[in-house]
Structures are given as structure tokens and as C-alpha cells.
Amino acid sequence: MKAVAIFTGSELLNGQTTNSNQTGLGRELASCGWTISRAEAVPDGLDAIQDALSRALHEDAELILICGGLGPTADDLTRSAVAQTLGRDLFTCGETLAEIRQRLSGRTHSEEHVVRQAEWIRGAVKIANVQGLAPGLLLRVGHSRIVLLPGPPREFLPMVRDGLIPLLKAEFPPLLRSAVLHTCGLRESDVELKTRPLLQEFPDLIPAWCASLGAVRVTLSLPAGREAELSAAVSYARKLFGPDALEHDSAAAECLELARRRKLRLATAESCTGGLIAAALTDVPGASEVFVGGFVCYANDWKQSLLQVPAEILATHGAVSEATALALAAGLCRFAECGVVSTGIAGPGGGTPEKPVGTVWIATLVEGRVRSRLLQLRGDRKDIRDQAVTHGLDSLRRHLME
Known about the structure:
five-stranded mixed beta sheet; Maf protein; Molybdenum Cofactor Biosythetic Enzyme, Chain A
């Protein structure tokens, strides 16, 4: 299946909004054995959307997905642009209008905006929108399928999973089957080296990796019908990666599961990461079974009063030091059996020749055993904090595995 994705919205081009829908769409399609042949972002406007659709039709794309521009405002022009390009009527669908009015019952709303979201292109098939108001539309033009979906990610991705993919599976059998392996603590170049024996053992395997700060997601694909071989390849990959491979999709989920198995309570004490480690843990459903809480001890007096870090350690070694990290971890022993600590210099200021920006100490606690790790991280403030979160959770994960 040749697929082209068109994302509408001037905010995607002027830097106001990150196009997370493209990432989500690519991941969802890849999980089913399809890939996007081409994607483009276009500004709001009839001409821009019509030109993009005409290009996709000229390429004989079997799937043309247009994301965005189905909302209630004057710049939501996707339905009009598509209708004009195809030479089809645009009208108000009475059934859709009644559904939207019912869902808005009891709430103040503009009738003009309701009517706009109930616009329909002649010959379209509805794709239900459980999270929002405007439905998606599917149109058949020759061998092409044109799909219009709303832009908000909380509406778009559920409609891709629950509405679009079942329709595609009925018409376009996947050519590939894929499996995803998450690794932590490796660079992209390390992953490439570790996969070389895998490709010698399975020469038809198609690998792809996506690197983020401190983690790499590995996707392994084989032609459909070779699922047993793909399963064997994944098992072999896990042996090659060893403890660098995660059982779950994040180090946070892994830490929670390992602590759960050992019936340990988990807590955090953070300085430079400002609660981001706790946030990563609580992003995982069911975290409350294990995670009991966290401290954000930015000021030294909080380190002393809440986690009993001795004043002489802070005076002698400073807040960013191995001694302070270990003392913070020791203070966590009063609240949980395992945990992770961060203290460092995220920048852009605060660095010294002895402790430059990016210096971060991580400490982990597991049933009374405390250990530390020094990180020298690069990047801006956000990059350093994000890397500290990933490495901190990975350090705790490895500690819990022992």
C-alpha cells in the first residue's frame, strides 16, 4: 500500500506546534506492516490543501490521509478543499448535526460552529470520533482511499487505531510484520553494532532504530507470513542486547514492575530533575501499587530537613556531589525500600571548571544497598534534565535486576 500523509495547519510550519500526529501515525501503521511513502505539512488554505491532494492523486497513492482542518472555525477548510478538488457536493449532514447537538446538550455553543462540523462530502463514509465532535470521512476515488481525520492528537490517534486501521486491514493486507524492542543506556551506534550478528543469522530481517536521549527503539520487520521467524529473531536480539533490552516500553515501567515483583515500595528524591523522574513513573498506569511519593529538594535546607542530609556534607562537598547524592538516598530509606536520587547542574548557568554544566550525580537505593553514578551530559537545560531522568531510571532498573 502506497500511503501519503498530508498534515494541515499553519502552526505546524511556524514552529508553534510539534507534529506529533505524524510520529503516531507512522508508528501505528508500522505496527500493522505498512509504511508512509511520503508526508508533508501545508498551511491552512484552500489552494495549499488542494495542491497537496492533487499531488498525492497524481502519484497514484492508495491511501491519502489528510489530518486537520475539520474543526468549527473559518480556517478549517479541509472538507471544502477536498470537495472542490474531487468535484463533489458539500452539504450539511442532518444525522451528524443531530449527533453533535446531542453531545453538546446542556453546554453553550455556537450554532454556526456546530453546522460547520456537520459538513459532509457526497459519497463519504463516516469514521466515528469518540473523543471529539467532527467525524472522520472516507472517500473512494478509483483505487485511492482518501481519509479526512481531525487534527487534535487526542482525537486523531484513537481514530487511527479504532477506525482507520480496521478499514485498511480489510482492503490492504500488510506486506510486513514488525516487532519492537526497547533498549536503554545505549547509543544508536552501539545498537547498530549489536545487531550485526542478528542480521547475519536472519539476512532477510529489516531493522530500523529510532534514538532518543539515552534510549533507542529497535523495530525488526519480516515479510508477512513469517511470524515464527520474526519471533525467533526477537528472542535472539534479546540475547544479544542482554540487560540493555527492556521487557516493557520504558525504563519507568520496568522499574515499577521489578519493584512490584519484589514487593518493594519506590520513592524519589530529585534536585536538578525537578520531579520529572516521579512524573515518568506516575505516567505508567498502576504506578500507585508501588510508587509512594517523591521529594523535590531544590534548596539545601530542604535536603537537610526532609531527607536529613548532614550540613557538613553540603558545606564540604556541595549539593552536586557523590556524598550528597548518597546521603539523599540514605534519607529515602525511611520512606521506601528502593528509590532513585538526582542532583546536578542543568544549566545554562551554575557550572564551574570542576563541575561544568551537565554534571549530574545519580544514586539508587535497593533494600539498604546504595550506589552512585556520575554523568557528564551534553545539551541544553531540557536535554540534560531528560537524559538525567532516563539514566536515573535505567540505573535503578539495573540495580533492581541484581
